[in-house]
């Protein structure tokens, strides 16, 4: 598939450079309210250290017990990414010391992850089907999160909050297939959409339930990969794109100045838009991985895999193709499938017998416009899909005009009343009464005799003037089709 535009390049003093990007996305499994190896709660925003079991705090003699639902959600996610599901997987201990890691190791999966290779298809331009690109997924492994250090609670000490300790994460590791900030942004948005459709992760980057480690290197186009840096815990699509841009330019400048890029872990400062060094990058052997002796291997049977597959919903790409199949433009189909709540709302609108193309145009233009003005999401809107379908039918059957429909829609937003009730009680029905329309047309033609002469002499653009005057005289309630027919008859 072709790229949407010319390849992204960093302009250096020695010529063009190419950026190579891979993302490691940590997605918290929010489909279950308990942790990976304990029954402790995982609610966001709880008071520090109120959601910590003896297992999470690594008390002596405590043994981990895998949460079946966490493993199920990882498998469902893998299936949604068209990835290889490994029937046999195993947990390993990743050993390192840190104050917020009570065990002194993290339980993860290095050698035998639960999900193998898959891919994500991205579109760089929602209006252009040929702008697609496939980004490879290397693996998904399940691991426990660490706790959190709090440095702003005391002038000389750091506090430890273990609420996140043991929370279940899926680490989704991409291949280094992305070549621009735009591709990295499109990949992260698409991955987030898939996770939210599946229901395995809520994708809330602000709350930390989805975050990305951004691996960036540069090279002259076509040459070997350069040394990469890893910028940790980036928590928005915009920031991921900013990290790629900054790191690529920083590395080019460093190399062209005669330096070398060290393999290191970096942090992003969103206020300044720059990255800074955190520590040298460890390799796998530095963590002294070995199989966790407290946990048996995970073996998946046919019945479990079949249940996982059958529970998957219609995914964004399939939904987009279905929408295009009933007449939606590629752009509208992409917009309506980008967020799972929008897609569900639109599906309910179609289930209420709304005409697909008319419904899509109305949602994208009118509904989204109103929600943006009001600072609301589609989840907050007081208008149900059934009421929206009713409004669209009133326009389609000629009960009200498109102009009146906008008024009715605004009243619906403010009052929550049904459109038919608003139209009836406020006398907004469109009239097709030719007698009433003829009477207004006669008045307008009599008052504009000079323009009638000009029209008959060939100035046909004046026809729109007569239509506008008639609609104005009838407060927008005249049926435009009837107005056009009666005007043509009287002016011929």
From TrEMBL:
The EC number(s) given in the record are 6.3.5.-
Q: Which family does it belong to?
A: Belongs to the GatB/GatE family. GatB subfamily.
Q: Which residues form the Asn/Gln amidotransferase domain?
A: 344-491
What is the protein name given in its UniProt record? Answer: Aspartyl/glutamyl-tRNA(Asn/Gln) amidotransferase subunit B
User: Which reaction is recorded as catalysed by this protein?
Assistant: L-aspartyl-tRNA(Asn) + L-glutamine + ATP + H2O = L-asparaginyl-tRNA(Asn) + L-glutamate + ADP + phosphate + 2 H(+); L-glutamyl-tRNA(Gln) + L-glutamine + ATP + H2O = L-glutaminyl-tRNA(Gln) + L-glutamate + ADP + phosphate + H(+)
HAMAP family named in the record: GatB
Keywords in UniProt for this one? ATP-binding, Ligase, Nucleotide-binding, Protein biosynthesis
Q: Which Pfam families match?
A: GatB_N (PF02934), GatB_Yqey (PF02637)
Q: How does it assemble?
A: Heterotrimer of A, B and C subunits.
Sequence intervals crossing the membrane:
none
Q: Which InterPro entries match?
A: Asn/Gln-tRNA_amidoTrfase_suB/E, Asn/Gln-tRNA_Trfase_suB/E_cat, Asn/Gln_amidotransferase, Asn/Gln_tRNA_amidoTrase-B-like, GatB, GatB_C_1, GatB_Yqey_C_2, Gln-tRNA_amidoTrfase_suB_CS
**Per the UniProt entry, what species is this protein from, by scientific name?**
Sphingomonas limnosediminicola
What gene name is given for the protein in this entry? gatB
The superkingdom of the source organism is Bacteria
Which SUPFAM superfamilies does the entry link to?
GatB/YqeY motif, Glutamine synthetase/guanido kinase
The protein's job, in short, is: Allows the formation of correctly charged Asn-tRNA(Asn) or Gln-tRNA(Gln) through the transamidation of misacylated Asp-tRNA(Asn) or Glu-tRNA(Gln) in organisms which lack either or both of asparaginyl-tRNA or glutaminyl-tRNA synthetases. The reaction takes place in the presence of glutamine and ATP through an activated phospho-Asp-tRNA(Asn) or phospho-Glu-tRNA(Gln).
């Amino acid at each position: 598939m072709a790229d949407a535009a010319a390849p992204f390049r960093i302009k250096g003093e020695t010529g063009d450079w190419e950026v190579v990007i891979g993302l490691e996305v940590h997605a918290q499994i929010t489909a279950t309210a308990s942790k990976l190896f304990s029954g402790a709660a995982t609610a966001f925003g709880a008071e520090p250290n109120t959601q910590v079991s003896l297992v999470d705090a690594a008390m002596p003699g405590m043994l981990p017990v895998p949460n079946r639902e966490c493993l199920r959600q990882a498998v469902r996610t893998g299936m949604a990414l068209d990835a290889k599901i490994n029937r046999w997987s195993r947990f390993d201990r990743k050993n390192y010391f840190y104050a917020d890691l009570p065990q002194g190791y993290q339980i993860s999966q290095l050698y035998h992850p639960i999900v193998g290779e898959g891919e994500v298809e991205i579109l760089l331009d929602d209006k252009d089907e040929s702008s697609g690109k496939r980004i490879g997924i290397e693996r998904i492994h399940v691991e426990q999160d660490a706790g959190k250090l709090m440095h702003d609670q005391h002038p000389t000490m750091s506090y430890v909050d273990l609420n996140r300790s043991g929370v279940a994460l899926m680490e989704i590791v991409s291949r280094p297939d992305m070549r621009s900030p735009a591709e990295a942004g499109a990949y992260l948005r698409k991955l987030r959409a898939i996770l939210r459709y599946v229901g395995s992760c809520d994708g809330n980057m602000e709350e930390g339930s989805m975050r990305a480690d951004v691996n960036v290197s540069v090279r002259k186009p076509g040459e070997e990969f350069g040394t990469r840096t890893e910028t940790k815990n980036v928590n928005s699509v915009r920031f991921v794109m900013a990290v790629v841009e900054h790191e690529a330019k920083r590395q080019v400048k460093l190399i062209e100045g005669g330096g070398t890029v060290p393999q290191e872990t970096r942090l992003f400062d969103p206020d300044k838009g720059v990255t800074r060094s955190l520590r040298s990058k460890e390799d796998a052997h530095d963590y002294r991985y070995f199989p966790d002796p407290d946990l048996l291997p995970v073996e998946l049977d046919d019945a479990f895999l079949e249940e996982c597959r059958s529970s998957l919903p219609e995914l964004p790409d399939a939904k987009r193709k279905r929408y295009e199949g009933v007449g939606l433009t590629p752009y509208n189909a992409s917009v309506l499938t980008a967020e799972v709540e929008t897609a569900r709302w639109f599906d309910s609108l179609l289930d209420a017998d709304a005409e697909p193309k008319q419904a899509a145009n109305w949602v994208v233009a009118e509904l989204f416009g109103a929600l943006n003005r009001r600072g609301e999401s589609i989840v907050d809107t007081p208008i149900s899909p059934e009421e929206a379908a009713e409004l669209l039918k009133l326009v389609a059957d000629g009960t009200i005009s498109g102009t009146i429909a906008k008024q009715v829609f605004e009243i619906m937003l403010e009052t929550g009343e049904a459109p038919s009730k608003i139209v009836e009680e406020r006398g907004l029905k469109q009239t097709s009464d030719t007698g009433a329309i003829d009477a207004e047309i006669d008045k307008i033609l009599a008052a504009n005799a000079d323009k009638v002469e000009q029209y008959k002499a060939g100035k046909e653009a004046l026809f729109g003037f007569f239509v506008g005057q008639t609609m104005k005289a009838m407060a927008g309630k005249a049926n435009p089709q009837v107005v056009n027919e009666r005007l043509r008859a009287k002016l011929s």
